[in-house]
Structure formats: C-alpha cells, structure tokens
C-alpha cells in the first residue's frame, strides 16, 4: 500500500520502500497499522521539519515468505530512492530461506544501483551489516537491551543528529547485535577499498548502535518510532514467547516506556541521507 504525505509547492519528495520483516502486536496493528505504516507517519513528521520540507512517499511489502509474505521484484524498487528494513523477531544471522533471499536481493540492489540508499532498524541494521560482511550474533552477556536507553554519540553521531549533546535516548528491543563493523575487506567487493563504515554511537550493552556511509547507508539498532504502548506490548510478546526470560528486567524496562526519546531526530537524520538539510547549523556530512 502506497502512502503519500502531500508536498507543498517547493517540497521535494523522498520515496522509500519499507521491507516489513515482522508484524506488530495485534492491538498495535489495529490501532496504528503495520510497522511500515507506523514508520510512514513517523517519517512524514520528520520530513515536515526538513529544510526545505520533504514529502515522504512509502510503499510497504511484508517479506517473510514463510508467513504469507512475498519478496518484491527488482523492478518494483526502480521508482524508489531507497529502502528501509524494519525490526523483527527473527535472527539477522539466521539461515531462514526468506532471509537468504532478502540478502540476495539487497546484494543485487547494492551492485546495480549505486545511488540507492539503504536504511535499517534493529533487525534491518544487523542484516545490512551482515550484507557488507560485518559480524552479527547474540550479545556476549546473553541479556537483552530493553526499553529507554542512553546512546553515547561519537563525533560523527553529533554531526548526523545536529546536536552538541554527547548522547541521545531511544527505545531498545534486542539481544542480538553487530559486534564487528563491516570493512572493505569483509564486504566481498561491495565496498570501495577506501570506503569506511562509521559507527555513530554505542552503549555499554551494544557498542555498535548504528552504521553510516555518506550518501549510501544509515542504520540504527534502536527503534525510532516506538511509543509507550508499543514498547510495553512488544516486551510482553517476547516474555510470553519465552524469548525474554528475565521477567524483572522486562518489568523495569516497561516502566521506562513513557519516557521521551529522540526517535524523531533519528528519522530526520535518515532523511538527510537522501536530501541534504540546510538547517543553519555548522554540522554537515562532508
């Protein structure tokens, strides 16, 4: 389903294909729609604050073929400026047939469309790291990073988020993580020899909270569009399924669900990957 945040006369338009790799809690689905629809509205808000304003058009495709989804044809993505891969209960380091099929599609797009933009959240962050040869797996501690968490910004992160603060706060929902950033040597020819995949921030639990390649890639381990109800419901789902066994940790995380977070700033930074934002600050992705 395509959704359009209609532009003003002087707006640009960014077109993003959202590859949905999971479904939200049923109550969230009925109230706010799929993960792709939730992200569409979140990016529409971020686009309205771009300088100049951006309209954001998205299309959502549920790609988990074993649960009734489908993989988009290569031609379907030709009218888009980039894609966003959502979070998922699946392991990005897994060998599920649909994950391998998605990796093959991403590899073809990366090679065939040098101007295409790749973005990902949580599972999507990990899968894009895997695509480029990074290392993905469970956290060495074996525990989960949950709820409202602080992320310490590297200097490049401060530039990307246009802030002089040394940290941001976002909602987390993961056990797996990227433990080693991709390099040109690990990427199997997908990266130029002088390319650098930069980590923009980290936490004590997860040192690699996001990856950045100018004009090409932006990922975030944390969730940028979760609200209080979504956080509580997603945690409850994982406790019920037995994924999260430390119930006390889950309860403490749920108690942080109401706290304000910087998800809109992350969305604004992702849109700057597509179209430069001249907001008058000294920070720029040079």
Automatic annotation (TrEMBL):
It comes from the Eukaryota. Residues 76-223 form the Glutamine amidotransferase domain. Pfam families: GATase. Gene3D superfamilies: 3.40.50.880. This is Glutamine amidotransferase domain-containing protein.
């Amino acid at each position: 389903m395509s959704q359009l945040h209609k532009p003003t006369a002087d707006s640009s338009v960014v077109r993003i294909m959202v590859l949905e790799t999971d479904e939200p809690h049923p109550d969230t689905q009925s109230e706010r729609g799929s993960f792709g629809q939730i992200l569409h509205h979140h990016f529409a808000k971020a686009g309205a604050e771009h300088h100049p304003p951006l309209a954001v058009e998205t299309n959502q495709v549920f790609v988990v073929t074993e649960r009734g989804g489908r993989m988009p044809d290569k031609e379907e993505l030709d009218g888009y400026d980039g894609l966003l891969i959502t979070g998922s209960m699946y392991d990005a380091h897994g060998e599920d047939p649909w994950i391998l099929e998605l990796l093959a599609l991403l590899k073809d797009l990366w090679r065939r469309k040098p101007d295409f933009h790749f973005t990902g959240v949580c599972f999507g962050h990990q899968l894009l790291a895997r695509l480029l040869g990074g290392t993905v797996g469970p956290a060495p501690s074996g525990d989960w990073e949950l709820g409202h968490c602080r992320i310490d910004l590297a200097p490049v992160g401060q530039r990307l988020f246009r802030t002089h603060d040394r940290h941001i706060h976002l909602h987390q929902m993961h056990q797996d993580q990227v433990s080693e950033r991709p390099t040109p040597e690990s990427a199997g020819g997908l990266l130029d020899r002088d390319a650098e995949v930069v980590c923009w921030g980290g936490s004590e639990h997860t040192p690699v909270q996001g990856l950045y390649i100018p004009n090409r890639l932006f990922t975030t381990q944390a969730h940028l569009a979760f609200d209080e109800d979504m956080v509580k419901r997603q945690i409850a789902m994982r406790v019920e399924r037995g994924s999260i066994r430390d119930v006390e940790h889950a309860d403490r995380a749920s108690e942080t669900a109401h706290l304000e977070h910087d998800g809109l700033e992350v969305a604004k930074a992702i849109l700057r990957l597509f179209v430069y934002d001249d907001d008058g600050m000294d920070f720029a992705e040079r």
